[in-house]
Design brief:
Elements (H helix, E strand, L loop, with lengths): L1 E6 L14 H8 L11 E5 L1 H4 L10 E4 L5 H6 L15 E5 L5 H4 L1 H4 L7 E5 L1 H6 L6 H5 L5 E5 L5 E2 L7 E7 L20 E7 L5 E5 L7 H9 L2 E5 L7 H4 L21 H6 L6 E5 L13 H9 L1 E3 L5 E3 L1
Parallel strand pairs: 3-4, 4-5, 5-6, 10-11, 11-12, 12-13
Antiparallel strand pairs: 1-2, 1-14, 2-3, 7-8, 8-9, 9-10
The structure holds D-malate, manganese (II) ion (MN) and zinc ion.
Length: 314
């Protein structure tokens, strides 16, 4: 399977439009060695599908999360816009891991599609996107959505992308602030995806929002050849210390990288050879500064930081 990182930043992107923290200011004025990043999304395909079929054009990519920055991401990803017909896309289906603004707003940008989008999401995300933020109802006046219920824990297949097997695991996290479930999350408000390639027998575990690692998440992480996981915050009180928010990372559904029980400790315990990549990086996170001690610590631990345009072959 081939994975393309379309957007590696958390909500707000990097630099964030109204932020003058050290990272954001440094990214703008060149005093911090870093790269700009758009909001959270990846796309996946399988090698066999990319060749196309005798039947004609295929749309071999599945978009995972639809970022508000999708139009820029597509502009920078020629493989996802193959231009075989007057109106064409390489995206055949969309999968959502939650109903957050940074993962769903891009659906509006994709409204010119010529057929309803096959859209995989859980029942609770579907409920949020037809009630608290009724984006799917609004889209019914444009291209429309062909909703495919995503089973929790069970396997599912995406017909436009043969060769891959999908499993959505409920993960501890937080639904979006507009969700009626915000204070009392339900299983299915946030999922991690375990995507297996039938040909190579290698798996990707993708979870851009993860508040804790429970037994089923840990099992999925251990069997994956690559984990692409929540790297939102370096420390749990990062936003509080900068005076930017009253909330800890955990309060908004993200396990911090550092500290006891943090993501770095978990990644350390994965089998040798697991590729470890952080994604959904918040603009305040010191790992965005390529000269920071925190970034050096990741390098010592063999952990990579996703960037827009990064490709992973599994
Ligand atoms: C999150 O990942 O916590 C949210 O996307 C934050 C946001 O909506 O800005
Ligand atoms: Mn987010
Ligand atoms: Zn900032």
């Amino acid at each position: 399977m081939r994975i393309r990182v379309l957007g590696s930043a958390a909500g707000g992107g990097f630099p964030q439009w109204n932020c003058n923290c050290r990272n954001c200011a440094g990214a703008r004025n060149g005093t911090v060695r870093t790269r700009a990043r758009t909001q959270s999304s990846i796309a996946v395909t399988s090698a066999s599908q990319e060749q196309g079929t005798a039947e004609g054009p295929v749309a071999p990519w599945t978009l995972i999360n639809a970022s508000p920055d999708i139009l820029f991401q597509l502009r920078d990803s020629p493989a996802l816009r193959p231009a075989r017909e007057l109106r064409d896309t390489g995206i055949g289906a969309i999968v959502l891991v939650d109903g957050q603004i940074d993962h769903t707003t891009g659906l509006y940008m994709l409204r010119e599609a010529r057929r309803p989008w096959p859209l995989w999401c859980t029942e609770s995300v579907h409920a949020d996107l037809t009630r608290g933020n009724p984006i799917l109802d609004v889209l019914s006046h444009y291209c429309g959505i062909d909703h495919r219920p995503m089973p929790l824990g069970g396997e599912f297949l995406i017909e436009t992308l043969p060769g891959l097997r999908w499993r959505a695991l409920p993960v501890p996290g937080k639904p979006a602030p507009y969700s009626p479930n915000r204070a009392a999350p339900l299983p299915g408000d946030n999922v991690g995806l375990l995507i297996g390639d039938e040909r190579t027998e290698r798996k990707l575990f993708y979870a851009p929002g993860l508040a804790a690692i429970d037994e089923s998440v840990w099992r999925a992480m251990r069997c994956a050849a690559c984990v692409l996981v929540d790297g939102t915050f370096w420390s749990d009180d990062e936003m509080i210390r900068l005076g930017l928010s009253a909330h800890r990372a955990l309060d908004i559904g993200h396990l911090a990288l550092s500290g006891e029980g943090g993501m770095l400790e978990w990644l350390e315990r994965l089998p040798a050879g697991t590729r470890k990549i952080l994604i959904h990086i918040n603009n305040t996170n010191p790992i965005l500064d390529e000269d920071s001690p925190q970034r050096a610590e990741l390098e010592r631990r063999g952990i990579e930081v996703a960037w827009d345009g990064m490709e992973i072959e599994l």
